[in-house]
Amino acid sequence: MSAKIKGAYSSRSFVSRKWTILLCLGSFCVGMFFTNRMWNIPESKGMSHPSVTEAERLKLVSEGCNPKALYQKEVKRDPQALFGEVANTHIALQTLDKTISSLEMELAAARSVQESLQNGAPLSDDMGKKQPQEQRRFLMVVGINTAFSSRKRRDSIRATWMPQGEKRKRLEEEKGIIIRFVIGHSATTGGILDRAIEAEDRKHGDFLRLDHVEGYLELSGKTKTYFSTAFSMWDADFYVKVDDDVHVNIATLGETLVRHRKKPRVYIGCMKSGPVLSQKGVRYHEPEYWKFGENGNKYFRHATGQLYAISRDLASYISINQHVLHKYANEDVSLGAWFIGIDVKHIDDRRLCCGTPPDCEWKAQAGNICVASFDWSCSGICRSADRIKEVHRRCGEGEKALWSATF
């Protein structure tokens, strides 16, 4: 009995061990199967294997980081090509600077108009309506500063260096040059002085009338009003102011200004720095002399008042800020003061302040024709109404020079 039980127990034990081993092997195989299927490492969505081309690019970048390789590449570059790239970059920066300057001026003008509207201030007629001349860009506007008593001076200029009638219209259309006598009105508007100017204007049509009361002590205000008015009426590269006792060669003036056409904020004239006169009663007395320091000090550099020119962006600056620009006793000092705090290119050209014959005549014979001629002792041509024809004959550039000039 015991032997049977022992044999049966031994048989069941053997079977159990056999199935246990098979079960273990089966479990191991199933586990390996599921491990290969379920535990593959996922690839990141943002990562990709580099292609052959990308691998080459990475190799080039890694080579570029090598200082030695970089130096060898720079040595192989053509020096002329490098200079060309530098020049092109310089031109691009100048163009960008001019564009930014123009945009800043236009933005300031828009803000000025907006403030005027918000404050209820009326806009001037020039700002409220578009002038026909604004359809084109002129080379320059030449304003001849004159007075009610200067009829003979004006006639002498008309007879010499200022074209008349159809020639003046041709000058505007073909050469882009506007020339006008600049004058305001008398203290009694509509009086005999104003009527005389109106009659003269009907005859010649060469005046620019300003909203300004005439007076020698008001020249700074007249200069400011002239530039503002001219800028609102004509779109030009340059705006010129000249006195009515100065001889001017128009073609030479145009050729001089054209050289600086691409430069921003240009102020051209014969630069000087005279003494600040504190003594009352003397000519060119400066009532605000104390602002310039101790007695005996000199003014800052500014163009002499007989003739000077400013570029379009500076005329715009004056027009926008005319109500806050300070006026000194002398108009040339005032103009120089307005440009002290901004980035302006001062160009000192001595051909804009030649002497009368024989000075300008010798220079013309040497091929260096003067832009303007006058006598320093008189701050203009002495007895200009009588002498300007002689100056024109001996120092003038000739009418052919004007019509053959290209600007």
From TrEMBL:
An annotated Gene Ontology molecular function: galactosyltransferase activity
Classification via Gene3D superfamilies: 3.90.550.50
Annotated metabolic or biological route of this protein: Protein modification; protein glycosylation
Topological type in the membrane: Single-pass type II membrane protein
Compartmental location: Golgi apparatus membrane
Protein name per the record: Hexosyltransferase
Keywords: Glycosyltransferase, Golgi apparatus, Manganese, Membrane, Signal-anchor, Transferase, Transmembrane, Transmembrane helix
Family membership: Belongs to the glycosyltransferase 31 family.
Membrane-crossing residue ranges in chain numbering: 21-39
